[in-house]
Amino acid sequence: MASFFSPLLPEADGLLAIGCRFTQLTTGTWSMPLPPALAQIDIDAEEIGRHYPVTVGLHADARMALRALLDVVPASPRSPWAVDPRASAWEPWRLPGLDVLAALRRVLPEDAIIAADITRLGYILLADFPVSQPRTLLHPAGYVSMGYGLPAALGAKAALPERTVVAVAGDGCFLMSGMELATAVQERLPVVLIVVNDGSLTLIKAIQQRRYESRFLGVDLQNPDFGVLAQAFGVRSWHVATDAAFETALREAVGVGRAGTDRGAAGRCAEMRWNARQHETR
Q1: Full-model pTM
Q2: Please, which of 13, 174, 248, 251 could form a disulfide with 169 given CB 3.0 to 4.6 Å?
C-alpha cells in the first residue's frame, strides 16, 4: 500500500484532518505514515484520536470550525512548500487498456453526479478524477457496500432531475442491484450506467493474488449478456472495448437523457469489457 500514499505526508510538519475517520481502507490498515503533528476536527468526539494520536483535537462542526480558522489564517497567499508529485513522473492509475477518466471529464458537465460502486474504476475515480463542485462524486468508501452505485444514482436523479447522473459499477456489483433498472424505467429516472465487465470480483481477486499465491476461490463470475438484460427492461445499451468507443457511447447516452425521459431514455447502459486474465490483477 505504501506506493498509494501521498509522498507529501513524510515531508509535511503537520496535518489538519477535517471530518476524516482514518478508516482501514483509506489508511492501508492504519499503515499510512502521518506527519509529526496531527490536528483533527470532527463533529463526532469519538472519532478524535480514535486511530492516530492527535496533537490537537477539536470537537466541532466542520463549517463553523473552518470559518473560525479563516479569521486567523493570513490573507496573503503562501508559496507552495512542496512540489506536486503529479507535475513530474505521475502515472495515473487506470483500467487495463482504457483511459476512462479523461472521457468522463470531457463529456460530463461540471455539475454531473457520479455514483461509484465498489469497483476498481470507483477507486480510480476517487484517486484521480478531477471534480470542481461539492457532492458530485458519491462513493460508500467507509462501508464498502457492493451494489451501491445504481440505487444511489437513482436517488440522486430523483432529488436533482435537472442534473446528469452516472452510475459506475463492476459486474459483481451490478449483479447485486441491477434489477433496479426496473425502477429507473418505471419512475422515469434517466441515469447513465457504466458496467465494467471483466468476469470477476476484481478487488477480492487481487487480494487472493497477492496474499494467497493466486489460489482463487469464488471470485470468477459467469455473467449474463448485459446488453440483452438491458434490452429486456427497455434500456438502451452500448458495448465498448476501446477509449474512442467508450467516449462515443457516453456522449450518445448522455444525449439520450437530455432529449427526454421516455421508456428508452429512462436508463442507458454502457458496458466495458475486456479479457482481464490478460492483465495482472491489481
Answers
A1: 0.79
A2: 174
